[in-house]
Amino acid sequence: xxxxxxxxxxxxxxxxxxxxxxxxxxxxxxxxxxxxxxxxxxxxxxxxxxxxxxxxxxxxxxxxxxxxxxxxxxxxxxxxxxxxxxxxxxxxxxxxxxxxxxxxxxxxxxxxxxxxxxxxxxxxxx
Length: 126
Fold this sequence. Notes:
With 126 residues, the protein is an alpha+beta fold. The chain folds into two domains: 2-44, no CATH class; 52-125, no CATH class. Helices cover 45% and strands 14% of the residues. The chain has five helices and four strands, in the order ααααββαββ.
């Protein structure tokens, strides 16, 4: 905790309050902690994807940040990234994902399948 306090510039007593849920950090504080720990701030956020609009918003943010390549077919849309490092990390994640036999949970809404959760937790993506 002392090292995190030094690296993040956040008072040790404040960090202890965050850890014990006596206080919630603002986004600026989370950003400092994430930077000190060398992880994405998204590691601290529990983002639930409940609708197609949620997915579109996430894809839009990724497109703005990374410049997505689109491959559009009649039945599906495939995305890849112009950044080869991102593609390589995603490829490794997909191999591990399939190997562990994990499925993305689906739910039926108005006779259309929508993804309800999509969380990438691979260390290489951070």
